[in-house]
Amino acid sequence: MFSTVSTTDLVTQIARQITEAIVTGKLRPGARLTELQLSREFGTSRAPVREAARLLESQGLVVSNPRRGFFVRTLTASDMRDIYELRIGLELHAAGIALERMGPAEIALLERQIAKLYALADAGSVESQIFEDFIFHRMLCEASGNARLIKVYDELATEMRAGITLIGKLYDDPHRIAETHEPILAALKKGDREELLSALHYHITVAQEAVVALFEGIERGDAS
Amino acid sequence: MFSTVSTTDLVTQIARQITEAIVTGKLRPGARLTELQLSREFGTSRAPVREAARLLESQGLVVSNPRRGFFVRTLTASDMRDIYELRIGLELHAAGIALERMGPAEIALLERQIAKLYALADAGSVESQIFEDFIFHRMLCEASGNARLIKVYDELATEMRAGITLIGKLYDDPHRIAETHEPILAALKKGDREELLSALHYHITVAQEAVVALFEGIERGDAS
DNA sequence: ATTGTGATGATTGTCGACAATTGACTCGTA
DNA sequence: TACGAGTCAATTGTCGACAATCATCACAAT
User: Fold this and answer.
1) Could you report how far apart the first and last alpha carbons of chain B are, in Å?
2) What is the CA B49 to C1' D12 distance in angstroms?
3) pLDDT tens per residue, range A33-47
4) What would the mean pLDDT of B73-102 be, rounded to a whole number?
5) Domains of chain A by residue range
6) A174, B30, B69, B104 - which has most CB atoms within 10 Å?
7) What CATH class is the domain B10-72?
8) Would the Cβ of A213 be found within 7 angstroms of any atom in strand D?
């Protein structure tokens, strides 16, 4: 999850910086990525920048028009609906498997993560709460023990972050955000499969509806 | 699904050729991909080859060791188990959504696809049947209407093909392969959700067990 | 025989440059 | 004023070259 060592290769480093710029909103959707400008900014030549851009394209953060270059991908309401719908399938599947594999230790970790959400609700920034929120769900996916599944989750998480950045509004009540994770934890503790899947489904669906509605509003021309 | 025009850009073209070489087995798992050799083979310079290799890395077909280059990814039994396990979650989710959206026309297309499988069982090559088998399941995913989900399926399909290539043995009774799709179709026609998910789950699990067992055998040192 | 060491060849990572193409801009004309 | 053709700057796609690094191999020492 976190950078292993500071000495990663140049392409990865560049890709990470561009990703940060996108998910934090410094690079707006639709913004053009000119290779020369980026290479100057990073103090490298164009080659590593191109490769980094290709990497980000495969992750769905940027799109490339042949002969025109790379642009920050503009996520639509339809995109977000698909992403969250897929996430439902993915995360419920992960939870179903995880339920069989989790011991008290793993569940305790999730509980601590929720505590962290509460703490950030009181004292932290919105961005850090969003980040830790994703960590919670990633831990759930990790508990499935399926590396391939985790990889897909990470890709979805990146896209969701890229989309959500525009939207601090969703998190107007950070305390409530933390609360909504409780039913998931409760079901896990009980070992109730039906309840777990139901709680997760509800949790994600609520987020989906909020995000999609907001995007539809933006597309309709409300304040960005 | 198929190439839109013959004039795709160079990187895509190279990536496609390397992919073909991998999934057809011409490039064995673990084989080294030297940029110079590939660039000579394609009559280009190294730059497009590098980008194509990066693309394939993001698809999980090749891996890169920094300063050492690219190698054809060696899929393990554990990898295949994860891939098929994820596929179960993905495809069942897709089917659940698809059930609501499919009309007689879409179901008829699936029926024709099964007919094609029978035809290939009688007269076709194993490879073409494998291909059309994947098409059947892709059609099911397409019916979900979720583009993001389809993208993940395509990635999984590529990895499965890369793994399965070694294995013509799994398709020793091609007629039976076609048959195993019938229960899925039957459930769809009935509109029985439970039966559909159950049939799909069984169908994929059977494949998973066969593939994983084969890989475990290979890892144990049986004939490759 | 085995292990450590040094040279050597091959390969990657990165760079700057050139040609091809695109999009915008200007100018002229109806 | 509106529209179209032609020109031009900017950017990408591709290339060959150089330096840094790694693996291999031979050779010597224990």
Assistant:
1) 31
2) 17
3) 999 999 999 999 999
4) 97
5) 10-72, 77-220
6) A174
7) mainly alpha
8) no
Task: Name residues 145-204 of chain A with a Cβ under 7 Å from nucleic strand C.
Answer: none
Which residue among A50, A86, A92 sits closest to B152, beta carbon to beta carbon? Answer: A86
Q: Which of A83, A97, A148 sits opposite B148 (nearest CB)?
A: A83
A171 confidence band (pLDDT: 50, 70, 90): low
Q: Is the Cβ of A111 closer than 8 Å to some Cβ of chain B?
A: no
CA neighbours closer than 13 Å in the CB half-sphere of residue A102: 28
**The amino acid at B144:** S
- Helical H segments across chain B, by residue range: 10-23, 35-42, 46-58, 77-101, 104-123, 126-142, 147-164, 174-179, 182-190, 193-220
Give the pLDDT score at B223.
63
* Architecture field, domain B77-220: Up-down Bundle (1.20)
Kindly report the CA angle at B123 between B122 and B128, in degrees rounded to 5?
105
Q: Which of residues 6-35 of A touch strand D (CB under 7 A)?
A: 32-35
User: Within window 61-100 on B, which residues have Cβ closer than 7 Å to strand D?
Assistant: 67-68
- Spatial distance between the Cα atoms of A173 and A176, rounded to a whole number of angstroms: 5
Tens of pLDDT along A84-120?
Answer: 999 999 999 999 999 999 999 999 999 999 999 999 9
Is B124 strand, coil or helix?
A: coil
- In sequence order, the 6+-apart residues with CB closer than 8 A to the CB of B155 are B59, B60
CA dihedral B144, B146, B150, B156 (to 10 degrees): -90
Q: Which of B66, B89, B146 sits opposite A85 (nearest CB)?
A: B146
The region that residue A30 occupies, defined by phi over 0 for left and psi between -120 and 50 for alpha, beta otherwise, is left
Nucleotides in chain C near protein beta carbons (<7 Å): 11-17, 21-23
Spanning CA of A67 to C1' of D6, the rounded length in angstroms is: 22
Is residue B24 pLDDT above 90, yes or no?
A: no
Q: Tell me if B55 and A51 make a contact (CB, 8 A cut-off).
A: no
Of A49-63, A158-172, B195-209, where does mean pLDDT reach its minimum?
Answer: A158-172
Q: In sequence order, which residues have a C-beta less than 8 Å from that of residue B158 and are 6 or more positions away?
A: B19, B23, B59, B60, B61
CB-based contact B215:B75 (threshold 8 Å): yes
- Smallest CA–CA distance, residue A92 to chain B, in Å, is 8
C-alpha to C-alpha distance for A161 and A105, rounded to whole angstroms:
29
Distance CA B158, CA B21 (A): 12
Characterize the bridge pairing of strands A69-72 and B62-65: unpaired
